[in-house]
Amino acid sequence: MAQALIHDPKVLILDEPTSGLDPNQLTEIRALIKSIGKEKTVVLSTHIMQEVEAICDRVIIINRGKIVANESTSVLQKSRTSGEIILVEFDSAVSENNYAQSTESNRVKILTETNGD
Fold it and tell me: Which domain holds residue 99?
């Protein structure tokens, strides 16, 4: 990270910057990244949600090359605690009636060719 910062970039891209660190180093690096983020744009790639919550103000979630969320961390946290929506895609036609009896049916949305993306 020091090598990247020595050139004073406007954008800093970090991929799993805390991987393999001990708890003390983890706290220090998170504080450093948050401090750098006040002056520069920091793009952070991680799969650790505690990392995101500790460092980030805004989150973009990419799944299979598509942006599936682009929100502030507070908005994402509210949507996470209020329930999840499960998006199910099938290769062939499926009747929604098959899911009407499921206890999870209110969480499932079936995409068809007429209403899908």
Answer: 84-117
DSSP 8-class letter at 61: E
DSSP state, residue 40: S
Structure letter (DSSP) for residue 18: T
Whether the pTM exceeds 0.70: the reply is no
pLDDT, one tens digit per residue, over 88-105 is 666 766 666 655 555 455
Q: What is the CATH number of the domain that holds 12?
A: 3.40.50.300
Contact 61, 68 (CB under 8 A): yes
Could you tell me what percent of the chain has a pLDDT over 90? 24
Q: How far apart are CA 31 and CA 51, in angstroms?
A: 11
What is the domain count for the chain? 2
CA 93, distance to chain mean position in Å, is 30
